[in-house]
C-alpha cells in the first residue's frame, strides 16, 4: 500500500491531472522496473538532453524509435540468426525490449544516431514564444509643468 493519496488533488484542481498521474506512476511499486537495456539520461545544454541506450548486438534495422502520446518509445527485436550455432557461453543479451520515456511539455526529439553499440537520442525543449518571459516597456507619463500646478494651488 502506498502512503500518498492524490484524490484531493483531483477534486481541488483543474488541469493538473497529468502531474498527479506522473506522481502516481512514480510512487507505484507494484510494477517492477525493467533494467534491460541499461541507459543514461544527460543534460547537454540548458534546454537539450540526450538519452543513450546500450544496444550491443542490434543493427539499425532492429531498432525502432517513435514518439506517440507524449512519450518516447524505443524498442528492438532481433531476427533470430542463431540457427546452427552452439554457444558454450552466451553473455551478450539480444533479447527484445521496449523502453518508454515520458516527455515533458514542449520537449521534442531532434535526432537519433546509432554508433559503437550505443543508441543516442537527442531531445530539445522548445518553449513557445507566448510562454517565454518578455519585458514590458513602461511608458512615461506626460510631464506636468510644476509651475502650472503650483499656480493653480495658489489661485
Rg from Cα: 28 Å
Share in β-strands:
25-35%
Contiguous helical run count:
3
Oligomer: single chain
> How would you classify the helix and strand content by structural class?
alpha+beta
Topology order in helix (H) and strand (E) letters: HHEEEEEEEH
The percent of residues in helical segments reads: 10-25%
Shape: elongated
What's the total count of β strands? 7
| Beginning-to-end CA distance, first to last residue | 81 Å
List low-confidence stretches.
none
Mean pLDDT: 80
Summarize the main sheet: 4 strands, antiparallel
How are the strands of the biggest sheet laid out side by side? 1-2-7-6
What are the salient characteristics of this protein?
four-stranded antiparallel sheet, 17% helix, 155 residues, single chain, 3 helices, alpha+beta, three-stranded antiparallel sheet
Amino acid at each position: 500500500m502506498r502512503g500518498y493519496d492524490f484524490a484531493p488533488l483531483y477534486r481541488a484542481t483543474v488541469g493538473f491531472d497529468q502531474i498527479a498521474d506522473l506522481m502516481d506512476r512514480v510512487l507505484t511499486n507494484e510494477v517492477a522496473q525493467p533494467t534491460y537495456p541499461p541507459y543514461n539520461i544527460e543534460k547537454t545544454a540548458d534546454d537539450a538532453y540526450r538519452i543513450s541506450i546500450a544496444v550491443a548486438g542490434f543493427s539499425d534495422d532492429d531498432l525502432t524509435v517513435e514518439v506517440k502520446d507524449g512519450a518516447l518509445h524505443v524498442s528492438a527485436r532481433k531476427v533470430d540468426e542463431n540457427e546452427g550455432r552452439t554457444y558454450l557461453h552466451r553473455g551478450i543479451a539480444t533479447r527484445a525490449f521496449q523502453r518508454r520515456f515520458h516527455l515533458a511539455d514542449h520537449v521534442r526529439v531532434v535526432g537519433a544516431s546509432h554508433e559503437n553499440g550505443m543508441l543516442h537520442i537527442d531531445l530539445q525543449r522548445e518553449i513557445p514564444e507566448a510562454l517565454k518571459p518578455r519585458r514590458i516597456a513602461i511608458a512615461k507619463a506626460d510631464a506636468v509643468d510644476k509651475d502650472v500646478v503650483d499656480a493653480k494651488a495658489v489661485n
